[in-house]
Amino acid sequence: MTSSRQKPAPRPSSAFLTVDPEKDGKQVGFLMIPHSPDDDAWGATRIPVAIIKNGSGPTAILEGGNHGDEYEGPIAICDLIRNLDPGRVQGRLILMPANNVHAVIAGKRTSSVDGLNFNRTFPGDPRGTITQQISAFLSDHILPLGDAFLDLHSGGSSLDIIPSAIVEPTDDPQLHKRNVAAVQAFDAPMTVVIANLGEPRTATATACRQGLVTVGTEMAGAGTVSLDALKICRRGVANVLDHLGIVARDTPEPRRGDGQVLELPGTAAYVYATADGIFEPFHANGEKVSAGQPAGRIHCTWDPTRPPETLHYAADGILYGRRQPGRVRPGNCCLIVAAPYRGVLS
Ligand SMILES: [Zn+2]
User: Fold this and answer.
1) How many angstroms separate the CA atoms of 164 and 233, rounded?
2) Positive/negative CA dihedral, 21, 44, 131, 83
3) pTM for this prediction
4) Phi and psi (nearest 5°) for 72?
5) CA–CA distance, 126 with 128 (Å, rounded to integer)
6) What digits encode the pLDDT tens for the residues 169-184?
7) Ligand 1 centre and the CA of 75: distance in Å?
8) Neighbours of 201 (CB within 10 A)
9) Cα 218 to middle of ligand 1, angstroms
């Protein structure tokens, strides 16, 4: 499955694993990134990694904690690390529940050590900051081991998003078909194609460039653990691992989704704040909206003489996500609209 792929040559790096990806059974250890701050000259940043391997078969890499304030995916990955019997695995799982570990420990989106958003650093730099070194090790040493990559995000502290499985766009039509099939196997309430406005520095964009079957998620958010989204996430991960032929489900699950695929229609998907104030949304997630329709108002409650500023939608579709904090400044993303997908599915 991996033989025809273009694998990048690994760049020299001081990072190392305490587990052996080629060994059968279950190992739980760390990716060690040498880290030399004031109080620890020869210390290391430790990123948890578990290998569960049994016989021959495909390899799936599961990532959580890409952002440190997104929780459902990491919980589902830790469940697998603790509870999955290696005898049920046909192939290999590489389980990484806390990849931007300093952000995870701080419960923040970005790293508390270098301030970087891990998901804007790929393919990383093995001689860069800690976050850049983590993404470099993933790019050079972890992703090349995989046939499939599951990147489990949620909306984080600033957004609440309808629980959904995400297709990362790729120029490779064969990979696109396999990605859509794997994402639909997740069977989230919604399947959405998200191009991140063409952003190439994400983990999923990197996995696609390396030819891995790639599945993303956005599981609610608002900086909390959603009970519904956690159930959807656990079930979806099991569905995808069954689809990949790595861990068969005990009992087949009936499909719940209607198979509809949506997309974020470019820049028109986003409603940004245009003023400093308090954002009042006009709709709940899941409501149908249309281009030109008033979307909400920004109030300046400390200057009541100033009239509220009205924001408008720029696309037809459904309200897919909403900003959580009421306080906004110009440029903040207040709302996100998803529209029916116009591309090819199969
Ligand atoms: Zn995220």
Assistant:
1) 9
2) positive
3) 0.96
4) -65, -45
5) 6
6) 999 999 999 999 999 9
7) 14
8) 16
9) 7
**What is the distance in A from the centroid of ligand 1 to the CA of 216?**
10
Residues 6+ apart with CB under 8 A from 115: none
Phi and psi at residue 149, in whole multiples of 5°? -135, 125
Ligand 1 centre to CA of 223 (Å) is: 11
Residue-wise pLDDT for 39-87, tens only, equals: 999 999 999 999 999 999 999 999 999 999 999 999 999 999 999 999 9
pLDDT at 1: 47
Cα 25 to middle of ligand 1, angstroms: 30
What percent of the chain has a predicted confidence (pLDDT) above 90? Answer: 93
Q: How far is the CA of 41 from the centre of ligand 1 (A)?
A: 31
Measured CA to CA, the distance from residue 23 to residue 332 in angstroms comes to: 47
The whole-angstrom separation of Cα 235 and Cα 19 is 27
* Sequence letter at residue 317: G
Contact yes or no for 96/102 (Cβ under 8 A):
no
Q: At residue 124, does pLDDT exceed 60?
A: yes
How many whole angstroms from 175 Cα to the centroid of ligand 1? 23
Q: How confident is the model at residue 250 (pLDDT cuts 50, 70, 90)?
A: confident
Residue 247 pairs with which residues in a beta bridge? 89
How far does residue 70's CA lie from ligand 1's centre (Å)?
6
Q: Give the pLDDT score at 345.
A: 82
119 vs 202: CA distance, rounded Å: 5
3-state secondary structure 292-313: CCEEEEEECCCCCCCCCEEEEC
- What is the CA(156)–ligand 1 centre distance, in A? 6
CB 50 within 8 A of CB 83: no
Q: From ligand 1's centre to the CA of 105, what distance in Å?
A: 15
Angle formed by the axes of helices 227-243 and 173-186, to 10°? Answer: 130
| Cα of 263 from ligand 1 centre, angstroms | 17
Distance 42 CA to ligand 1 centre (A): 31
CA 153 to ligand 1 centroid distance, Å: 4
